[in-house]
Write a structure and sequence with these properties.
The complex is a heterotrimer of chains A (318), B (302) and C (302). With 318 residues, chain A is an alpha/beta fold. Chain A has helices at 44-51, 78-87, 96-99, 106-117, 122-135, 141-144, 154-166, 184-201, 212-218, 236-241, 246-254, 293-297; strands at 2-13, 16-28, 33-37, 60-68, 71-72, 89-92, 172-176, 204-209, 221-226, 229-235, 303-305, 308-310. The chains are: A alpha/beta (318), B alpha/beta (302), C mainly alpha (302).
Chain lengths: 318, 302, 302
Amino acid sequence: MLDVRDLRVEFPMRRGTLTALDGVSFSIAPGEVLGVVGESGAGKSITGLAIIGLLEPPGRIAGGEVRLEGERIDNLPADELRKLRGRRIGVIFQDPLTSLNPLYTIGRQIEETIVTHLPMGETQARERALALLREVGIPGAEARYEHYPHQFSGGMRQRVVIALALAAEPRLLIADEPTTALDVSIQAQIIALLKRLAAERGAAVMLITHDMGVIAETAHRVAVMYAGRIVELGSVREVIHAPRHPYTVGLMGSIPRIAARKGRLVQIDGAMPRLNAIPRGCAFNPRCPRRFARCLVERPDLLPAGTSFAACWLHAAA
Amino acid sequence: MPLLSLERVSRDFDVSRPWLNRMLEHEPRRVLRAVDGVSFEVESGETLALVGESGCGKSTVARLIVGLYAPTEGRVVFHGRRLQMIFQDPYASLNPRWRVRDIVGEPIRFLGTGARVEELLVQVGLSADDGDKYPHEFSGGQRQRISIARALGGEPDFLVCDEPTSALDVSVQAQILNLMSDLQSRLGLTYLFISHNLAVVSQVADRVGVMYLGRMVELSPAGMLFSRPRHPYTRMLLDAVPDLGMSGKSRTPVRGEVPNPLAPPSGCPFHPRCPHANDRCRRELPEFIDGVACHAVAERRI
Amino acid sequence: MILRRLWEHDLAWSFRRSPVTIVATALTLIWVGAALLAPWVSPQDPFDMASLNLSDAFTPPAWDEKGIGRYPLGTDNQGRDILSTIMHGARISLGVGLAAVLFALVLGVSLGLLAGYLGGRVEAIIMRIADVQLSFPAILIALLIDGVARVALPGDRHDELAIPVLVLAIGFAGWVQYARTVRGSTMVEKSKEYVQAARVIGRRPLAIMLSHVLPNVMGPVLVIATIHIATAIITEATLSFLGVGVPATRPSLGTLIRIGNEFLYSGEWWITLFPGIALVVLVLSVNLLGDWLRDALNPKLR
């Protein structure tokens, strides 16, 4: 469904060009949820924005290609891309308020999206909008149809955004931190909803989040990002239970889990490098407990490691 | 004697519109009860955690303890030497126009403690000459270290930590949590740890209090709370935590949302979302007995 | 080293990229230089009655066939050299403008800080006064204050005190904008955690306002002040044009334009035109400088 090859994003700045993404490749099959996980600054949101053509200037795609159902979309003109978003790609952002127009009722916004993208009359569109609102679990959908975004709670608003993103039956759904702004009990509900909808419709979902727990609950495969590159890619079970890249190992160890007693967490010392100071060789090498000579000079690509892939020289065939 | 005790503490906030609007539009005064009759004690050397969803009043409790708010009812009694606080947002908790040396030095200068800025910086894992820099030159995790150094500059025996890691990435969160636990054992600190993240709380707390709509609904030793939660809300929260182990164990689906605190439900505030609610729960506010405020538990229905 | 850092600073960078700003700065600097050095560099001292030659009155500019080389821009009705009067006039215009802005800034920032930080009744009183004052045009308020001063002070004292009275009048007419802006940003800063941290340490409100909040609310104030200098110069010119500003013996640009205005129809256009151009160029360059400062300090436009 979605195929990203060697994607490279650059930000030309005053003092030289920052490479925000470098050689990012992955694909998502219909009905599959791919989790993209990473810490802030790893490039996960930029990956999402680059795919839908919403990079903030001066950011630009400097290389690679993005294909949706086999068709290249990274070089489309701006208005073609705009048609694509909403029609074939649905987008859900972290803050539901940014995706909703505060001046229109939510019913009208969904209706409008449907009429713009699908061959439907007004009555049909209204029926469909109501059905969508019911489907995402908004109680009393008829009554709430005429309400404005501010009249909804955070969790309900995110449901509206999901309904809006699904309005034109997109083939690809990109969700950027859809549950981060929500309380845990609401988060669980939204995760369950996303999972169910993706499965029912056979849409491909790219779920961007910093929360490994959300990934574990929702995704089939996961891509772990570090300093603008994918460092590990594999099935969720494999990455969580048998991480192959030392960064993923450290990351998994540092996630607190419900335990009946106090304990010390595994910690990775130091911090992710800034984009203007990415070290030579493997970007993780200064923090890596298992680095050796090759890591300092040569940058590893994704290498097969068990059933997953890891960008780490430990997995180079000797 | 406990280091800190709260005795039936409540705090109201006036959220009414300005006087002129109220007069012209015949609106009544509107009062939000953010904290309602909360009592607990903290013993010297332990970590008590308060958990709950947004709007449950846990941050207000933190601010009542350090004196940023005065209680509307009840009282806060502190028997220790001094309280300090660590805040949630590492970007807002340091004055952007001050050098780190002045930020960390402020409590030392003002309270006249004998602490030294360089030693404090080293103690929290920064370097002594970081004092010359400004906050924007540091990452979120390093800023939180500066914030801890400032709190330690006041030579406290009690630290109130309001979501100290929720704005940080997980790997940085692990660094800060480990640092806090090292400092606790080295300096004999007592912590009140506020968080919405149950997994984090289980790593740091000796005892855990669960709050819902301004009230304490359960307060138990951590081991017991996580292995045998009693209040239905605690159970729901634990069920909502994403399962990293992917054990696929069945869980009760979470229902509903936190009600509007300006119009709390009658009786037990949790009854609209509770699978065990009966008529008594809808009518009558449950007493906090033996560490839990729930009719169903008191009547041994669950 | 320091120069190099200054050169690479964001402000310096945005400055180098804006030719309009460079020209505006150069013009402003020329004006400030001319105003400061007027007593030494102007061809004539227009206030020294002894050096004036009445027979030179109404000399046209030097390029006119009746012009005299000594008076490059001609002379006025009393034989004063226009170029010299413009330089001395700019000295008074700029001086009054700067002093009035400084007065408005100190008054407005203090009141805004108090209103924003203390809130409640103090805020209500200050901001309602501001609202009332905003419903009058600034020029009217300045006229009112000037009028009151005229009545209150004996005639001979008034000429002496005319300039300080003018400064107070223009300054008082302009404090509201500072107060409103500062109140808004103070309320934002006050809710930030670094202010709460200072309160936990136990610092007094006044100390927090001055050492923590003030440095963080000054950015927008500087932008307003720059643009306000231009407005203040215009207000002064308007008042002087109306004859209630500075005394005719110490003419500002506005006074010069008024004097020239009387002769405009009799053909002596240069008396009013050159001071007029001078005023426009001065105000325009200060305004452009203010616009640039506003854009450069606004992170959203960067």
